[in-house]
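G., before I forget:
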Amino acid sequence: MPTDTPGASLRAALAEQNQGAHLMAAACPSRAVLSHLTSRWAVLVLVLLLGGTRRFSALRREVGGVSEKMLAQTLDALCSDGFVLRQAYLVIPPKVEYSLTPLGREAAERLAVLVDWIEDNYPRIEQARADLARSVSTEQAA
Amino acid sequence: MPTDTPGASLRAALAEQNQGAHLMAAACPSRAVLSHLTSRWAVLVLVLLLGGTRRFSALRREVGGVSEKMLAQTLDALCSDGFVLRQAYLVIPPKVEYSLTPLGREAAERLAVLVDWIEDNYPRIEQARADLARSVSTEQAA
DNA sequence: CAGAATCCGATTTGATACTG
DNA sequence: CAGTATCAAATCGGATTCTG
């Protein structure tokens, strides 16, 4: 087994047995982490930071469509979770650099796999969507 | 390079050069796919379905905290995107089964890697958060 | 430049009740 | 059982203004 998913078997086993007290549980604290990592802008920010340290304004430019507020909010959350390191240089004009922590890098790499898959397979996804539109209630079952 | 991320090099290259017209672009249609896949309940539903076909009520029970409305809405979106197959049996009482399409399975597997990572590393994340709380503005730079 | 603060509309979310 | 309909609450998200 050359893959790097140590918890896969555990997760699968628990999922099939429905006895897990993990992410599927409403009260599980890791739910918050999941939502932070998969939030609209966090995914893009993390993947970008995988390419190296960046300043606030650079991120603002590179992450198309993000507002200052949302970017600041996203970065703040990622810093609080220990995924991103914020380094503020006390100079004028202000200069702040953001980079991934080792933990953040691990998470970002996994997100990048998803992002890359989407980009690589977008044509197939579009195709599937088109196929669906054609087969409007064509098959039944009993 | 033994990993299964064919687009990684492309993504990294584009990210570093900031010349990409892909997910980082505000208007990129794949943004919608990303948001569907990473939405609060879709992640959990997809990972659960990785464990096999499930009925609506089973999902409702297993995905802790989801409301009927949100589950229906989530499943609807995943079906429209071609990630989930919905099979309705015309019997009384009604019976509807949801399962992953090949496309959905690929996406779900990548999400599962992330979910598994979070569960496996939650202690480290908590630890990092605790460490942060201690080092409140301890280091500067110039 | 990097953000904090404020305002406020748009969207999301979730109980609850109802239906085939 | 598997939803849909409805309404109120909560959150999101962005434009704007202000500051060190």
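The first strand of chain B starts at residue 54 and ends at 55. The radius of gyration of chain B is 20 Å.

More on Monday.
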